[in-house]
Known about the structure:
single chain; 121 residues; mainly alpha; globular
Amino acid sequence: MAGHDTTIIDSERKKLGLSHAETGGQLATEWNFSKNYLNIILHHHEPAHAKRYQRLVCLVHVADAIVRRLAYGSGGDSQQPTIDNAAMDRFGIQNKGLHRLIDAVQTDLNNGKSILSALEG
């Protein structure tokens, strides 16, 4: 896990020489993943670097940042991820809309947990 003021990506690059996105990109290439998946894997933290499939990359970038902000799962650090402004612009999202989207995702996650709890018995 990264330190309190260090992102997981910075820690990975410092200790390993590359990030999980770069490692995933190498595996995706080795395993002959399609170019759209390769671009998503490589650029989901830095969508501006994607040369192709930018809309898809931006979508995953925004979704990743939202679930990290909601502390759903673990990103390997305690940092609040910054959403790339260009990704927000691509979908016409402003701060107010982002907060509404985050609230809607939180509601859906809570509803999903309720359904799973009910199914468990």
